[in-house]
Amino acid sequence: MVMETSEAVSREGGFNISRFVPPSGQTARAAAYSYSQSRGFQLALRRVGAAHLPQVMFAGEPDVRVQLRGTLFDQNRQHFFGRTWQSSLQKMNSKISFNEVLYFHTSLLVPGILVVLELVSISRKRDGSHQAVGRGFTVLELFSSSPDSPPVYGKKRLNLHHGTPRGLVHSQLKDTTDYSGFLKPIDEAHLECFIKDHPSLLEVMHLLPENLFVSGWEDIPGLKPSPTGDALLSPQLLEMMPFSLNRLTVSLQPSLETSESLLLQLINADCFNMKLLEERPPEQQQRQLGPEDAQKSVVIQERRLHVGVYNGWGFLDKPQVVLLELVTDGSTKRSRPVKDSSSSSMLSLRSSVELSLVDHPNTAVVFQLEYAFSAPTGRESALSATSTSRAAILQCIRWGAWCPFQEQADWTGREIQLVLRGGSQPNPFRVLVCGSEGFTAASTSDSPQEAMGTKDMISFWFSSNPGGKAGSPKASLKSKKEGPYQSSSSSPSLGRKEAPPPESPRGPGLSLSQLAAPSGFPTLSHSSSALPWKHSFPSPLHLSPLASAHQLSHVAGSTLSNIAHLEMDLQPGAPEPASVQHNGDQLLGLPFPPVHAPAPPFVPRSGSVSALDHLISVSFPEVVDYCGQKAEVLDPKEPLLFNPQREDADFLQDNLLVFQFLAFTRTSAADADSGHPSNIYVTFQFYRFPPAASQQLRLVSSDGSEGLPQVLATVNKDGTVNAASPGLQLQFKVDNGFLRPGEKRRFLHYLAFHTLHLDIWDGDSLLLIGSTGIQLKYLLRQGKPAVQALHELEVLTTDYAGKDTPLLSTDPGHRSAFVPAAVCTVVKGRLYVRTGNIGSGTDDGRQTAVDHRPSASHVITPCRDNCSFKGGRLGLQPSGRNTMEPDRLDCHAASGGGAASAAPEDSEARRQLDCTTAVRRREEAAQMKDLPQEVPPTGERHSVQLIAEPRKEELISAMLRENITTLHLLYASLGSAEFMEFVLKNPFDLPQTVSIHSDDPELSVITNAEEWRFYKETTQTSTPLLENLFLSEGGAAGPMIYLRPKESVHVPLKYQTFSCQTATVLQGPGFLPTGPSSQKNPSKIPAAKTVQVTFQAEDSRPVAILRVQVEPTPHLVDQTFRLYHPELCFLKKAIRLPLQPTAGEPDGRTDVCIRCSDPDILCQTTTLEPGAPQHVYLKVPGSPSPDIKLFFVMVFMDTWMAAPSQLWQIYIHYLEQVDVGCVTGQQRCQSVALRGGQEVHTVRCFPSHPREVQVDPAGVFVLPPGAVQELRLKLQPWQAGRRFMYVNAVEAEEHRLLAAWLLCLSIHQPVPSKAFELRIPVCGLRGSSRRFSYTNPYNSRRTFQLHSNHPDLLQFREDRFEIDGGESYAIGLRFAPTQTPGSAEILIYINNLDETTEETFCLKVNYS
Fold it and tell me: Region labeled Disordered — which residues (predicted)?
C-alpha cells in the first residue's frame, strides 16, 4: 500500500494547525530558573459593552460582524508569541455577548506576560472578500509584578483602548511596565471577563503545546468528547493503545549512494565557499575542491530516524530516535563515519519501535530522516588535517506522516509504503528540510505503483501489540515534569525482566556533542578511531534501570553510572517468572530488582549569575601558564572534541594538574533534614596518585545574602582559619619522571573518558554528605599552554525509605512480609571546583617526550648489561656474593671496552640498569654491616685462611650463579598481566630437558599457545611462536622444554597479581601540603619485590636464572562504592552488570570473570535467566564497629584476563545496629553504650538527622579509659516507613571516629483523630492564615506542644500553649506562600511535655 504524505494527513490545514511563534529565549530561561512546571488557566470572555460603538465606529457599514482575537505578549521583550485565537462572529449591538472560554497552559510564570485582546470588525467587500478592521484592544496582566497591585484572578472589567496592538512594540514603550499614560481609552467601552487557575488542564497538557489559546469545542485528539461541548472543562483522556513498527526500511532515489554523494558534495561546497569568503581574497573565492581539501571534507557520521505520534497540535510524547544501518546484499553493518557509502541500497532498522496511539482520525505517525555530519572547524595550520577539531551538524533530509485510523486506511497484515517529503513545506518537527530537487527524478506517472521507483520511500509493517503495555498519558506528562537527571524513555520498569540491549539503539534525542563521539565513547574525534591503544579498552556498559535516570547531557554513556546495587524482592504479589511456573518443585532464583544506584554521572549545571559574580569577587588563586598569562577558560556545558594527535604534537609534554575547591552551597531541603555543616573535607583518588583526603575546610558565609555559595577556607591543625587565602588548591605533576614508557596515551585516555569520584564529608561529625564527580576531559589542553574550567557540581546521596506499615492493618500476614526499601537520590548541595592544566617544557625537550621514548621491551635477552655479575674479586662475605668496587662500572664504561660498546643507548634501559645496580649495592652494604670490623693479628691470619679454604667452592658457585642471572625491572599494577619473553639458550653441546621453577606463583609460564598468541598480538611482539613447546609429564614440578644443542627459544612468562595489601582505613580529614612541595614524589610507590625464575637442566643444575624486580604501581579506580552494614554480619551484595553483546557469539553474551583482592571474600558472577544481565555477587565477612574494610573487585571481559575492564574500590563501613519501632510525631527513647579504650578521649556525638534524632549528652564529654558511657537517643521521626539514620561518636580533638551506630527505624503513622480539607490561593507573598479550636479533655490545667510534619509549609502562631481543663484554645495556622498549584497532606501533632502524642489532625490542603 503506497501513500503520499499529503494524502495521509487529510485533516483541514494539514500541520498548519499547530504553527505558533515561540516565546523569547531569555524569558524562557528566566522562567525555567525560577519555576519548574506549567500552570493551567481558564479565561472566560463574557461580553463587550459599548453604547456608542455601533453609531460611531460602524456608521455606513451594514452587515458588520465583530470578532475577538487574542494572543500572548511579552512586555519585557516586546514580543508577541503563541498563536492568534479568533472567536466566533457576533452581530453588532450595544452589548456584544461572546461567552467564549479559552484554555491555555504556560510555564512563563514571570511578571510581564500579558494577554492582548482585540475587537475586530469583519465586513464584506464588493468582490466578495472580507475586510478586518481593528476597533480597539485591551491588555490583561497574568502575573502581578507589585505586591500592592490588585489580584489578577477573578472577574475583570477591562477598558478598550484606541489603536492597534502593534503599537505595543513601539520604541517609546520599551522598558515600560505601565501603559496607562500611553494608551487612550474608548469612552464607555469595556470587556467583561473572568480568569482563574485550571488545574485539570495539567492532566492533558501533553496533548497541547504551551502558550496556545484553545477553545473547549475544538477537536483535540486524545480527549473524550464532552456532552456539554466543552471537553477541556473536565478533561478525560482516551485510552492509549500499544502498536509496533517492524521491518522498517528507508530508500532514497535514484539510489542511496547517489543521494548521499550529491548531498556530501553540496554540503562540502557550502562549507568550502563559506571558508573562502572568510579567509581568501575575492579573486580566489571561486574554485573547485582540490586534493588538499579531501581530508578536511564533511563526512556522514550517523543516519537517524525520529519516530513520534502527532495529534495536529503537538507530539503526545517525545519522539524516539533510532539509528539506521546500511543494508548491503542482505547484510547489515553499523552506521559509521564515511565519506561515501558503499554499494548499499537502503537503510534498515533491526529492532522494532513501540508506540502508543489513540483511536482518532487525526492521529498521525510521523517520521523524520536526519543525517549527522562531522565537519571541520578552525583555520588552517601547520598541523595535520586529522588534528583539526570537528563539529557536528544535524540536517533533516526527509519527513513523512501517516494516519492509521482514517476510514480509507487498511494496514492489517500489509506492508505500508509511505512517500517521504522534502522542501520548504511545514512539518511537525519545525525544522528546515533539504529540497527534493536534484535528489529524486521527476515523475510524470500518476500511478502510485510507478511512483515507488521515483520517490523516496519508507516501508514498515504496522501491527497492534496486545501483549505490550501502552504508555499512559499521565506517564507521558510525568516525563515532561521530571528533572534533568531523569529519563523515562530509557528506563524499563523495575518489575519487568530485562532483555539484552537492542541492536539498534533507541532512546531520546542526542545532543550535538554526542554526535561528535563514536558509539560508546564520549565526545571523541573520529581521527582517533584507528589508534592502536583504543582497542584495548572495552566499550562502556549499558546503563542500568536506575543509573540510566542520571545520564549526562552530552556524554554518550559513561562507565561511572553503569552499575546498580541489588537486594531481594520478596514482596507479596510480586509477579512470578515464567521459569518458576513450569518447573514444578524446583527452586530457582528470582530476578533481583535494583534498589540502589551508585554516584551517577553529573550534569554540568548553569550557575546562577549572582553565584558566579560572588565567586569572581573572591580573590582565589589564578591559573596561569608558564609565561604568566591567564589560562584559557573552557565551558563544561559545551562539548569538547578530543584529538590525540594534538596532544602528541604538543611540545609542552609536562602537565601540572590543578584542583581548586572554591565554595560549597547547601540546599534548603538538605539543611532542614540534616543541618548545616560548618566544616567539610573532600576525599578522592586521582590517577595513580595515592588517595587524597583534604584538610578541614571552613564554610565562610557571605555578608547579608542568603543562597550564595559559601567560600571554603582551610583550617590548620591548631584550629585557626586561613581566611586571607580562600579555597584549597591541590596540584599533581605528571611529567617524564612520573610516567612509565608508553603510559602517556593511557593517561590521555584516562583524562578523556574518566569521571573523578569525589566524596564530601562533614568535617565535625565525619558523616558522608554526598558524592559527586568531575569530568576530567576538560583538563585536556589540546595544544594550548594552559586551560581551566569552573564546575558547579551537584552533591548527591542515596536515601533509603520503605513503605509505611499502618498501625491498624487488616492483612494478618502484612507485617511478616518483607517489603524492599525504595531508593531515591537527594541533592545535598553544590560544590564549586576549578580545574586546570598547565603545560611546561621547551622545544628542546620535544624529542624526548614520554610518548617518543621507546617502550620497555617485552623480550629479555641475557647479556652483559642485564647480568647480575659485574666483575670484581672474591670476598669473605657471609652471603658468598662477590664484592664489587663502587667505581667498577663507571671505569669500565669510560675505558671504551666491549662492555661500554654494549651499553644501552636509550635512556630507559640505562634507567633500569641504574635502578638494579642501586638495589644490589644496598643489599651488599647491608651485608657488609654484619662483617667484623676488627683486623685480625698477624698470627691469626693463617688460621683465618685455613677456615676460609673450604668455602671457596661455595663462593665460586655463587659467582657462577650470578654470572648466569639476568636482571629485569617490571612495573606491575593490580589485576593487569605483564607479559615478557625470556630468551633461553642451551649452552651445552648435548640436548637438554630444561625445567622451569618460579618461587612466586604470581609469575607463571604461559603454556597455552592461544594465550601466548593473544599476548603477542596485544603487545605487538614479533617473535616466533612455537606450538607444543612444553612437555607435559605427570609429577613434574613445573613446565619442561626440550632443547637441542646450542638452541635458543623464547619462553613466555606472565606476572599478574590479584592481592593488594591495604592498611587500616581511617575516617577523617587529612592535612595535605598545598605548596610546590606537594609535587615531589607524589606516588609513594611501595617497596619492591623480587621474584626468581630458575631454568634447571636434567642434573638439577641451573642453566639460566631470571631475577625480576617487581615495582608495584597504584592502580586506576573506575568506580567507588561506600556501603554501610551492621557489624559482625556477612554482607551479601549483588551488583547488576549489563553487558554489551559480543560480536561472533550466537547467544549474545560476554564471558565475565571476577577477581577480588581479598581472598576471604567470596566473589562470583552468574546469570539467573537466559538473556538477562549478569550479576556480580559478593559475600564479605563482618568486622566490629567502627572498622572500615577496603577491597578491590576486578571485572574481566576478555578470555585470558589480561587487564580488568572495570576496577571497583569498595568501602564497607561497619556500624552497630540498633532496631527501633517508632510512631511519627511521638518521641521514643533508646539507650546505647559507648565503651572507652586505653586512653582518655574527649567525645562528641553527632546524629545524621538532627531534627529527628537528639543525643544526650549533646555536647563534649570526657570518656575515661575502660569506662562505659550511656547515650540516650531521643527519636522523633516525621516520615512514616522504614528508614535508616546514623550516629557517630567522634574524638573531638583528633577528629577521629570512635564508634558508629546504624539506626534501623520502623516508623508507623498514627490514626488521625480528625481530618480537614481547605483551599489556599496560589498568589501573593504573604501566605494565608487559618485557625481551629482545641479543647483540653482533662480536668486539670495542661501544657501542649504543636508539631507539623511539613514545617516548610505550615507554621504555628505559638508552638506551645497552656490551657485549663475543659477549656478551648484557638490554634493559629500560618501557611507559607506558594506559586505552584497542587495539593499536600499535612499532619498536626498535639503532644504533651513528654512528647507523647495526644491528638493527630490531618489537613488536606489544595493550592489553587
Answer: 467-523, 890-911
